[in-house]
Design goal:
CATH topology: Rossmann fold
Oligomer: single chain
Bound molecules: adenosine-5'-triphosphate, magnesium ion
Structural class: alpha/beta
Number of helices: 7
Strand content: 25-35%
Radius of gyration: 17 Å
CATH class: Alpha Beta
Order of helices and strands: EEEHEEHEHHHEHEHEE
Strand order of the largest sheet: 6-7-8-3-9-10
Helix content: 25-40%
Number of strands: 10
Protein backbone atom coordinates (compact mmCIF):
# COMPACT_ATOMS: atom_id res chain seq x y z
CA UNK A 1 0.00 0.00 0.00
CA UNK A 2 2.82 2.40 0.89
CA UNK A 3 6.46 1.86 0.07
CA UNK A 4 9.75 3.68 -0.17
CA UNK A 5 12.68 2.62 -2.32
CA UNK A 6 16.32 3.59 -1.97
CA UNK A 7 15.67 6.77 -0.06
CA UNK A 8 18.67 9.01 0.57
CA UNK A 9 18.72 12.17 2.61
CA UNK A 10 21.42 14.57 3.69
CA UNK A 11 21.37 18.04 5.17
CA UNK A 12 23.71 20.84 4.19
CA UNK A 13 25.57 22.18 7.22
CA UNK A 14 28.33 24.75 7.62
CA UNK A 15 30.71 21.82 8.15
CA UNK A 16 29.60 20.17 4.90
CA UNK A 17 27.03 17.60 3.89
CA UNK A 18 25.53 15.57 6.73
CA UNK A 19 24.31 12.19 5.46
CA UNK A 20 21.33 11.01 7.49
CA UNK A 21 19.57 8.28 5.49
CA UNK A 22 21.16 5.87 3.03
CA UNK A 23 19.25 3.53 0.70
CA UNK A 24 16.28 3.19 3.02
CA UNK A 25 13.60 0.72 1.92
CA UNK A 26 10.28 0.04 3.60
CA UNK A 27 7.02 -1.64 2.62
CA UNK A 28 3.91 -0.93 4.62
CA UNK A 29 0.70 -2.91 4.26
CA UNK A 30 -2.78 -1.95 5.37
CA UNK A 31 -3.25 -2.60 9.08
CA UNK A 32 0.50 -2.96 9.80
CA UNK A 33 1.60 -1.63 13.17
CA UNK A 34 5.30 -0.81 12.78
CA UNK A 35 7.81 0.48 15.30
CA UNK A 36 10.98 2.34 14.36
CA UNK A 37 13.70 2.47 16.97
CA UNK A 38 17.15 4.01 16.94
CA UNK A 39 19.45 6.26 18.90
CA UNK A 40 18.87 9.97 19.21
CA UNK A 41 20.04 11.67 16.03
CA UNK A 42 19.83 8.47 13.95
CA UNK A 43 17.29 10.03 11.57
CA UNK A 44 13.94 8.68 12.78
CA UNK A 45 12.10 12.02 12.69
CA UNK A 46 13.72 12.88 9.37
CA UNK A 47 12.46 9.61 7.91
CA UNK A 48 8.94 10.17 9.25
CA UNK A 49 8.86 13.70 7.80
CA UNK A 50 9.84 12.32 4.39
CA UNK A 51 7.28 9.50 4.61
CA UNK A 52 4.66 12.11 5.45
CA UNK A 53 5.75 14.22 2.44
CA UNK A 54 6.58 17.11 4.78
CA UNK A 55 10.22 16.95 3.72
CA UNK A 56 11.86 15.82 0.47
CA UNK A 57 14.44 13.10 0.07
CA UNK A 58 17.51 13.76 -2.10
CA UNK A 59 16.72 10.64 -4.09
CA UNK A 60 14.46 7.63 -3.93
CA UNK A 61 10.84 6.76 -4.58
CA UNK A 62 7.75 7.19 -2.46
CA UNK A 63 4.81 5.08 -3.64
CA UNK A 64 1.23 5.24 -2.39
CA UNK A 65 -0.90 2.48 -3.89
CA UNK A 66 1.77 2.14 -6.59
CA UNK A 67 1.56 5.81 -7.53
CA UNK A 68 4.81 7.79 -7.31
CA UNK A 69 4.16 10.73 -5.06
CA UNK A 70 7.59 12.24 -4.38
CA UNK A 71 7.44 14.81 -7.16
CA UNK A 72 3.82 15.89 -6.89
CA UNK A 73 3.04 19.60 -6.65
CA UNK A 74 2.67 20.94 -3.09
CA UNK A 75 -1.09 21.55 -3.54
CA UNK A 76 -1.60 17.97 -4.58
CA UNK A 77 0.58 16.74 -1.71
CA UNK A 78 -1.40 18.78 0.81
CA UNK A 79 -4.61 17.22 -0.49
CA UNK A 80 -3.08 13.75 -0.33
CA UNK A 81 -1.87 14.30 3.24
CA UNK A 82 -5.26 15.52 4.36
CA UNK A 83 -6.92 12.44 2.84
CA UNK A 84 -4.48 9.62 3.56
CA UNK A 85 -2.11 10.52 6.37
CA UNK A 86 -2.53 11.34 10.06
CA UNK A 87 0.27 12.74 12.20
CA UNK A 88 0.84 12.39 15.94
CA UNK A 89 3.81 14.06 17.64
CA UNK A 90 5.51 13.82 21.02
CA UNK A 91 3.70 16.92 22.23
CA UNK A 92 0.08 17.11 21.24
CA UNK A 93 0.30 20.13 18.86
CA UNK A 94 -3.36 20.92 19.51
CA UNK A 95 -4.53 24.43 18.70
CA UNK A 96 -4.71 26.25 22.05
CA UNK A 97 -7.61 28.56 21.10
CA UNK A 98 -9.89 25.66 20.17
CA UNK A 99 -11.70 23.19 22.43
CA UNK A 100 -10.86 19.47 22.33
CA UNK A 101 -13.97 18.92 20.20
CA UNK A 102 -13.07 21.71 17.74
CA UNK A 103 -9.52 20.41 17.42
CA UNK A 104 -10.84 16.99 16.40
CA UNK A 105 -13.42 18.53 14.04
CA UNK A 106 -10.81 20.61 12.22
CA UNK A 107 -9.40 17.99 9.79
CA UNK A 108 -12.94 17.21 8.62
CA UNK A 109 -13.74 20.90 8.13
CA UNK A 110 -10.51 21.27 6.12
CA UNK A 111 -11.76 18.42 3.93
CA UNK A 112 -14.91 20.46 3.30
CA UNK A 113 -17.28 18.39 5.47
CA UNK A 114 -20.20 20.22 7.08
CA UNK A 115 -19.91 21.56 10.61
CA UNK A 116 -22.79 19.38 11.81
CA UNK A 117 -21.20 16.22 10.43
CA UNK A 118 -17.76 17.12 11.83
CA UNK A 119 -19.23 17.84 15.25
CA UNK A 120 -21.14 14.55 15.35
CA UNK A 121 -18.13 12.47 14.26
CA UNK A 122 -15.71 14.21 16.62
CA UNK A 123 -18.06 13.92 19.61
CA UNK A 124 -18.63 10.23 18.88
CA UNK A 125 -14.92 9.46 18.63
CA UNK A 126 -14.04 11.42 21.78
CA UNK A 127 -16.78 9.56 23.65
CA UNK A 128 -15.37 6.23 22.44
CA UNK A 129 -12.00 7.34 23.82
CA UNK A 130 -13.51 8.12 27.23
CA UNK A 131 -13.31 11.89 26.82
CA UNK A 132 -16.99 12.83 26.63
CA UNK A 133 -16.63 14.97 29.77
CA UNK A 134 -13.71 16.90 28.28
CA UNK A 135 -14.97 17.94 24.84
CA UNK A 136 -15.34 21.63 25.78
CA UNK A 137 -11.90 21.87 27.43
CA UNK A 138 -9.17 23.85 25.69
CA UNK A 139 -5.86 21.90 25.49
CA UNK A 140 -4.45 23.85 28.47
CA UNK A 141 -7.18 22.37 30.66
CA UNK A 142 -6.47 18.77 29.69
CA UNK A 143 -3.98 16.43 31.36
CA UNK A 144 -1.03 15.29 29.23
CA UNK A 145 -2.62 11.91 28.61
CA UNK A 146 -6.01 13.44 27.76
CA UNK A 147 -4.41 15.91 25.34
CA UNK A 148 -2.52 13.09 23.64
CA UNK A 149 -5.74 11.06 23.30
CA UNK A 150 -7.36 14.10 21.67
CA UNK A 151 -4.33 14.31 19.33
CA UNK A 152 -4.85 10.63 18.42
CA UNK A 153 -8.54 11.33 17.76
CA UNK A 154 -7.59 14.27 15.52
CA UNK A 155 -5.20 12.03 13.56
CA UNK A 156 -7.73 9.24 12.95
CA UNK A 157 -10.96 11.27 12.49
CA UNK A 158 -10.49 11.42 8.70
CA UNK A 159 -9.95 7.64 8.57
CA UNK A 160 -6.46 7.93 7.06
CA UNK A 161 -4.69 4.93 5.58
CA UNK A 162 -1.45 5.72 7.34
CA UNK A 163 -0.63 7.20 10.74
CA UNK A 164 2.86 8.57 11.37
CA UNK A 165 3.57 8.91 15.07
CA UNK A 166 6.83 10.42 16.35
CA UNK A 167 7.31 9.29 19.95
CA UNK A 168 3.57 9.72 20.69
CA UNK A 169 3.99 8.56 24.28
CA UNK A 170 7.41 10.15 24.91
CA UNK A 171 6.10 12.84 27.27
CA UNK A 172 3.80 10.61 29.33
CA UNK A 173 4.29 8.61 32.51
CA UNK A 174 4.43 4.84 32.09
CA UNK A 175 0.79 4.09 32.94
CA UNK A 176 -0.63 6.89 30.79
CA UNK A 177 1.76 5.95 27.97
CA UNK A 178 0.42 2.38 28.08
CA UNK A 179 -3.17 3.63 27.94
CA UNK A 180 -2.45 5.88 24.93
CA UNK A 181 -0.44 3.17 23.17
CA UNK A 182 -3.17 0.52 23.66
CA UNK A 183 -5.80 2.97 22.49
CA UNK A 184 -3.82 3.76 19.34
CA UNK A 185 -3.28 0.11 18.67
CA UNK A 186 -6.95 -0.88 19.16
CA UNK A 187 -8.23 2.04 17.14
CA UNK A 188 -5.85 1.46 14.26
CA UNK A 189 -6.46 -2.28 14.20
CA UNK A 190 -10.24 -1.80 14.21
CA UNK A 191 -10.03 0.76 11.39
CA UNK A 192 -7.32 -1.22 9.56
CA UNK A 193 -5.00 1.80 9.52
CA UNK A 194 -1.26 1.29 9.02
CA UNK A 195 0.86 2.88 11.73
CA UNK A 196 4.54 3.78 11.75
CA UNK A 197 5.54 4.75 15.24
CA UNK A 198 8.90 6.01 16.43
CA UNK A 199 9.49 4.89 19.99
CA UNK A 200 12.27 4.60 22.53
CA UNK A 201 10.23 2.05 24.50
CA UNK A 202 11.33 -1.55 24.07
CA UNK A 203 8.06 -2.90 25.45
CA UNK A 204 5.93 -0.86 23.02
CA UNK A 205 8.18 -1.90 20.14
CA UNK A 206 7.72 -5.54 21.17
CA UNK A 207 3.94 -5.07 21.04
CA UNK A 208 4.12 -3.95 17.38
CA UNK A 209 3.80 -6.29 14.37
CA UNK A 210 7.22 -5.36 13.01
CA UNK A 211 10.21 -3.51 14.42
CA UNK A 212 12.76 -1.65 12.31
CA UNK A 213 15.98 -0.14 13.60
CA UNK A 214 17.73 2.88 12.13
CA UNK A 215 21.44 2.45 12.58
CA UNK A 216 24.35 3.96 10.70
CA UNK A 217 21.90 5.60 8.29
CA UNK A 218 20.29 2.35 7.22
CA UNK A 219 16.95 0.82 8.17
CA UNK A 220 16.69 -2.88 8.85
CA UNK A 221 13.94 -5.09 10.21
CA UNK A 222 14.66 -6.77 13.52
CA UNK A 223 13.62 -10.37 13.77
CA UNK A 224 13.18 -11.94 17.17
N1 LIG B 1 17.26 20.75 9.01
C1 LIG B 1 18.38 20.15 9.42
N2 LIG B 1 19.59 20.64 9.08
C2 LIG B 1 20.73 20.04 9.45
N3 LIG B 1 20.77 18.89 10.16
C3 LIG B 1 19.60 18.34 10.55
C4 LIG B 1 18.34 18.95 10.20
N4 LIG B 1 17.35 18.18 10.73
C5 LIG B 1 17.96 17.18 11.37
N5 LIG B 1 19.31 17.26 11.26
C6 LIG B 1 20.29 16.30 11.81
O1 LIG B 1 19.97 15.01 11.27
C7 LIG B 1 20.16 14.00 12.24
C8 LIG B 1 18.87 13.21 12.42
O2 LIG B 1 17.91 14.01 13.07
P1 LIG B 1 16.51 13.43 13.52
O3 LIG B 1 15.74 14.54 14.12
O4 LIG B 1 15.90 12.73 12.36
O5 LIG B 1 16.93 12.36 14.64
P2 LIG B 1 16.03 11.41 15.54
O6 LIG B 1 16.44 10.01 15.27
O7 LIG B 1 14.59 11.74 15.35
O8 LIG B 1 16.51 11.81 17.02
P3 LIG B 1 15.65 11.90 18.40
O9 LIG B 1 15.49 10.48 18.90
O10 LIG B 1 16.56 12.69 19.29
O11 LIG B 1 14.36 12.59 18.12
C9 LIG B 1 20.63 14.69 13.51
O12 LIG B 1 22.01 14.54 13.61
C10 LIG B 1 20.24 16.15 13.30
O13 LIG B 1 21.14 17.00 13.94
MG1 LIG C 1 13.13 12.59 16.60
Amino acid sequence: MFSVHDLNKSFPTPQGKLDVLKDVNLDVYQGDFIAIIGESGSGKSTLLQILGTLDQADSGELLLDNIKIQHLHENKLAQLRSQYIGFIYQSHHLIPELTALENVMLPLLIQGKSKGYAQEQAAQLLTELGLSERVQHPPAHLSGGEAQRVAVARAVITKPKLILADEPTGNLDETTASTVFSMMRDLCKSQNVAVIMVTHSQSFANACDKVYALKQRTLSELTF
